[in-house]
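Supplementary notes (optional reading)

For those who missed the lab, this is the record we used. Protein: Acetate--CoA ligase. Length: 633 residues.
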Amino acid sequence: MQVKSFEEYQQVYRKSVEQPEQFWEDIANNFLWKKKWDKVLDWNFKEPRIEWFKGAKLNITENCLDRHLEKNGDTPAIIWEPNDPHEDHRILTYQQLHDKVCQFANVLKNNGAKKGDRICIYMPMVPELAIAVLACARIGAIHSVVFGGFSAQSIADRIKDAECNIVITADGSFRGTKEVPLKSIIDDALVQCQSVQKVIVLTRSHTPVSMIKGRDVWWEDEIKKVETQRNMECPAEEMDAEDMLFILYTSGSTGKPKGVVHTCGGYMVYTGYTFSNAFQYQPGEVYFCTADIGWITGHSYIAYGPLTQGATSVMFEGIPTWPNAGRLWDIVEKYKVNILYTAPTAIRSLMSFGDDVVKGKDFSSLTKLGSVGEPLNEEAWHWFDEKIGKGNCPIVDTWWQTETGGFMISPIANVTPLKPGYATLPLPGVQPLLVDENGKEIAGNGVSGNLCIKFPWPGMLRTTYGDHERCRTTYFATYPNLYFTGDGCLRDEDGYYRITGRVDDVLNVSGHRIGTAEVENAINMHSSVVESAVVGYPHDIKGQGVYAFVVCPNLHDDSELTKKDIMMSVSRIIGAIARPDKIQFVSGLPKTRSGKIMRRILRKIAEGDTANLGDTSTLLDPAVVEEIKAGAL
Ligand code: WT7
């Protein structure tokens, strides 16, 4: 599945465009199927309807686990590094991971889980999170992982939307010096959720929890039951290629997060292929992705992609800055990491601590670096290259999205010539194009436009859970017959792609996707707020910060306290990741005569670019702009 030279890449790429079905069929033949497909691809972007490997039967966990056992059962699958560096690390071989997944799959069955059920997972970054995910896939249940930083309200919204019947969680999680009471947050969420019958709770932090009779059970007790039943094997459920594998919620430009749906066959082929090819993974290499399994990066490139390739992955529970800003480098040293895949925000944050934290660390094991989540600015690119890669490691800047399932535009390590700040070229099988506002293709090089994809790829989303129309309008209706990414993009003279950021009302804060409408809804729930508008502004470390303009007519004497109250509201309603960095109280928002908020103007003010506000003549009340400008933070 790996191309070995740039010439070969160009040749394979051409074939993948001219004969996509043939190309993907050849790739799919590298995986284990219970039955092969009747048809490689059936599709239209109008409904949309996308079916890959129709008629094929498989179970993704047999590709992630069983097929490695004979030759590589003793190969480490997961090396787990705890939050506290003094706690022992854990290593799970493929055989051990297989056995634990089967055991827990039986726990799920004992607790009433069956194929097609939706199961919510809200857990810390411990091996049991990967085990829970794979156990769902083993029995054909659809997992919906919710990142451990989301609030009770956010969890409840997701559980209700997917009608989950089981929740898997832990007593609490450790992140640096903080302890997050996961089970107690789940209890708050479940007050609103009628569909949940069982909660399975892993012991991690020994935080006291309340266990409800008949509903809540301990992970460890349930495993013991399976052991006494001698019920350690669990045959893999036979799945259709197009059966749902998981739902992962992500923010868009409207208020409610949507459940992006990925299916078994195409997602497996796509994540396995892109992992193998872009990183040029070789057996025995140690790979470390610093993401959390709660996001798509963790799903595709901690769990499924690397495991289908029999790779050895480091999984890290903690945060890069605790006990100090050298933590990631200590982990690289400790496990002799060869491939390090991280995010621009982490690189910029660690950069800001100065060279002392990298001095004296042994980076000699590193051969390849990767980045994901937002544009990797040139300063950070060079620092990563020089200080970490020692000028010897290609930087694989992977552009992709929750919806794409896997890498789309990305260098292939040691194959694609690099350019700082560029995701470079589309991987084989990916057909990008740029369009103008009217959907007209902008051909040629040295051009910018909105990034679309014109042909399906196996890892693409199939629908948004419970609301196919929303999937159509969000991704396939802006430009007929194209998938619209929501990103702006530049294609330079060499045909290289540089992602310039979102062109919709979606922010990218520390690589986390946040809908401005979602934050506004949360702010507007505060009792003294009349209305608000949220925009992004450039932030040295986070990439973008959250700037909220808030109309609060009867402001309390202590307006600083009101700001804190509003921040607290956002934390409670969405989660701390969406908390505004800046709040400016204003007497009104700039609106057009038809009542539309002119965000363009607010964005300029938040960016500090007040000299270029552009045309303000259509405003209902131009005076409000002067006031907002004067009070800008
Ligand atoms: C958005 C998707 C894909 C996993 C992490 C985020 C931005 C992602 C890059 C990159 C420039 C990037 C885009 C995209 N983005 N990777 N390498 N260069 N921008 O997944 O939460 O679905 O967010 O992240 O704006 O649309 P996500």
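If you only remember one thing from this example: The chain has 18 helices and 30 strands.
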